[in-house]
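In response to a reviewer's request, we include the raw inputs and outputs for one of the modeled complexes. The two entities were modeled together in a single run.
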Amino acid sequence: MMRTRPLKVALLGCGVVGSEVARIMTTHADDLAARIGAPVELAGVAVRRPDKVRGGVPAELITTDATALVKRGDIDVVVEVIGGIEPARTLITTAFEHGASVVSANKALLAQDGASLYAAAEQHGQDLYYEAAVAGAIPLIRPLRESLAGDKINRVMGIVNGTTNFILDKMDTSGAGYSEALDEATALGYAEADPTADVEAFDAAAKAAILAGIAFHTRVRLDDVYREGMTEVTAADFASAKEMGCTIKLLAICERAADGGSVTARVHPAMIPLSHPLASVREAYNAVFVEAEAAGQLMFYGPGAGGSPTASAVLGDVVAVCRNRLNEATGPGESAYTQLPVSSMGEVVTRYHISLDVADKPGVLAQVATVFAEHGVSIDTVRQQGKDGEASLVVVTHRAPDAALSGTVEALRKLDTVRGVASIMRVEGE
Amino acid sequence: MMRTRPLKVALLGCGVVGSEVARIMTTHADDLAARIGAPVELAGVAVRRPDKVRGGVPAELITTDATALVKRGDIDVVVEVIGGIEPARTLITTAFEHGASVVSANKALLAQDGASLYAAAEQHGQDLYYEAAVAGAIPLIRPLRESLAGDKINRVMGIVNGTTNFILDKMDTSGAGYSEALDEATALGYAEADPTADVEAFDAAAKAAILAGIAFHTRVRLDDVYREGMTEVTAADFASAKEMGCTIKLLAICERAADGGSVTARVHPAMIPLSHPLASVREAYNAVFVEAEAAGQLMFYGPGAGGSPTASAVLGDVVAVCRNRLNEATGPGESAYTQLPVSSMGEVVTRYHISLDVADKPGVLAQVATVFAEHGVSIDTVRQQGKDGEASLVVVTHRAPDAALSGTVEALRKLDTVRGVASIMRVEGE
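The model returned the following structure tokens for the whole complex.
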């Protein structure tokens, strides 16, 4: 059964992930060959700095000319682990044009240009696989695209960024503030020197766009995703969360509207009950909770980043793409047939936890409650605490549209008796 | 792009799962067509009792002649949700012979005859898919076979039977004994009138055989799986578990030996630490923990049974098989190239929690400790409790081969000072 001409893989990038892909391809060559039905070999590795020695990659495979590598014509699969928009995008489309399929781990590029990359792949009869782009080693793209292809997904809610989960977990367990926890994450290598992409949730937003598109069979652009980072989360917020039996996570949430006619995608910190499976996701782990009409509630959990886990996801895709080539077939392409519109954050319906600093005098609660009522936001619980002439009010609402809550908060700020809005946090998972 | 001749599905069995498959195929026909790239229609439904009305299935599709249905020659996919060995086995092979691929939820048959069914599928160029056979709606077979195809799986440990997890969870949370918890499970419909297949772990053992075969790319027969039911688990065991910071779960465990040269598969009740992700799997939910060389620790969680969840898994497979047919290709077949031997339970290395009823006199602990030492089983902790002339000894061991532990227990029973071995339970997940 086994053919002898090997399938050829070109590797673009040989950093933490790429070098691990190369290592496993070498050390596990026999297993990969048996699973594919043909041997697979590393045919070239494009890097920026060829002088930087990479463990295990033969020097003769290394090149600085990535374009020439993807144009060679004898490459079956291009593995793109460079990241960023360019030159990755051009290299991927060039690969398709020259008869290669592509396995990518590039969430930023897929979130921004997924549709045009899919179109290029289809035009040239090639595969585009990207399991590693969301939640690292956790099988998620394939289960959503294939295992749940006979079901209707209504909600995807997940922790898809390990850095921020590490920081929030530290804040939760140690009582540390944000900067202290960030410093620890940086020292341990969980956060980059410039943590913006993680802590401002750009990374999670890209993943939310990809997940929403797949889950709802529609196109969701990065700009469609509401994004709120987690730099403003305080130790006081965690204390409030604990009083409610909750913790705080940075969640990516993709939802189908109740009427089914639109979808939303958003990333923001939120309180979730300790009893929710996502609440116990610790350190830099990722987990994604999926609600489907027939399947019910599913959860996928595992390491969301790191060289080896990401290489595992990449190589699973390499095996799939190689099998497709031997079958002279391609796997499922883009599925965006529903063309559902993406609604804005104002239309998202959820619950809110709001802390107000108020004057400690009679009638304040009545005033505040009136403002909520006028905006159609129903109050679930109120807790009032007085201290030294000042007081705080903690309001937890029933489900209400985000726009109604924003209107409420704007009006609250104008009240003489409200000295400040200490925090607003959404409450999910109930 | 869309072809107009529909793909035809024959449904064998129209009980809890089958009727849900039929319902979703009708109500979500447009979605299924869009995802497959061609319409798909229900071409016939074989049942034993045609007089029993099935919601939504047109009377003209119903037949009692399953054999004639699978022999029709125009069927693309046969969905087998009858269960049991015969007539399911003959119908599946007949389907292959007559040009149909098969989607099955039949764990007993796949555990017993998976290899010959795969061979028949391959001989006739057909697909055999069975995501629904293990852990219901949880995408597990596809992630193990495809997403992790570039990785090396070392361990699969899961809760794969919802009935027994429901019973154990009740015992844990309410302090109930086994029979009381079983009665509640029966009353709520979680346990069948004859619960043997579940509580004696035949069901879980079949799933362990399937999972071990896929995970290690070898053949594991049902007879290779060590099986111990959970009817002997007592409220006292749960009390002991709590003292250790553990709970008790019925676990299916598939492991690669440390030297990589063999594998084991077993199902038995075990203590696991409350901090382990499997400990918090409540009620009738299932979850499977996977340890792979590169990916690290992954967990898959969701409903393990029920009509709708199982139908979701079946339909995911139907979509995949239909796509394959449009591609004139087949998906991955059996992967058993490693041909690793399956070791017996005696070679499994794990930890043990042993409760002994002993005479309350000096020297007993020394005697008991000597027996452990003579059998090469190292003791981690001992707790001694005296009450009214009797005493109990609770011993927790370090990791030791199961055969050594069995020898230890046999020798302990012969000691005059040991009045009885109250319980032996393995300790996993540490």
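As requested, we also summarize the result in words. Chain B has three domains: 7-136+308-326, 154-303, 345-427. The CA atoms of residues 377 and 405 of chain B lie 7 Å apart.
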